[in-house]
What does this fold into?
Amino acid sequence: MKPFPDELAQHLPAAGHQLSRLLAAGPDPALTRHLETFGSLDTDAMTSGFLPVLEAAGLTGRGGAAFETWRKAMSAVQSGRKGLLPARPVVIANGAEGEPLSFKDRTLLAHAPHLVIDGLLALTRTLSAGQMWMYVTAASIPGLRRALSEHPGARRIEVVEAPETFISGEASAVVNRIATGSALPLDQRRRLSEAGLNGRPTLVVNVETLAQVALIARYGAEWFREAGTPTDPGTRLVSVSGPAPVRDVVLEVPGGASLPGVLRSAGADPDSVSAVLVGGYHGRWVRPGPYMLSPTGPADRTVRPGAGVIHALGADDCGLQVTARIASYLARESARQCGPCMFGLPAMASVLNRIAAGERNPRLPGELDRLARLVSGRGACRHPDGTAGLVGSALEVFADDVRAHLNGRCIGPGGVAA
It folds into this structure.
């Protein structure tokens, strides 16, 4: 494994919250700049011996689920070996990013398309896979096609446009879009790693995860672990947004980064923020506090980064009204393929909007809780569960606001009745 280039050593990992691993090559880099920054990678030399390196690195998925990358890859390999005729796996790079508050993946594709391609080629070779696909939104396609035209070994990579919908990035929706043109989740009883695209074992991997794979392939597991914590090694990209003076910015932060530190890096004073949405529309509201961003850890000190979204709520904003608008959006964005999505989510959004509007009905919170329990675990995909989780966190974090709204008023700045 090669050491990280000397010119970038200053950015590793003691640089605090603002690191420069993934985005080090700068915007829209040509292949020459990519190679000058990261060095070359012989993806043709990759073998199954790379999977133990991924395991040692401890890389987890950066698309939201945070599943162990090596284990997810191994499941596709094992499934491909079953049966009388072994099936070569399919690998799909997922850059759909349907989450409205997320812009990290398109930023990554604009700054490091060759790194994502390297990761896709490396993982494909490691798994002895067959087909390769890149699934990205329309805005990312021109730059990606330029990078593919330059990149050796990228000739067999197919590009498919992802529609701008919330559920288009769900793994089975990705496979369905490539297979049929419809980006709707599939109600599958078998895992995609067993039978996905054209019945083959299929690995759908977030583009940031693939970029991290490319770095690990170059510099090794020990280097990757120089940033982050023992249980959450490496770095991750986060999309940070909110009211002024918060800058809408993509930051590269170490695993276990503190939430207040991330907010400060984006220009926010944590003391002036009333609440933070972490993980996106399927994430969780928290009050500003000494939380660490990590997929593992105690709930009172750790908050899962999910899709890498950090959205600050201003002191003048009503968290209930914001959540009601999100719930209405999520109800509209469902696949409408199962009862929880067709009926449960619109009902939840309706009740939450009634509370946010100040309807004086003390039974509404109980009804909202009942509906959340009714849809959880019963959907064709995880969309109802994610929506219910967000609404549940809002009822908990904004409990004082709920009581005020049920009395026909909204708590304004400083807790003064408005």
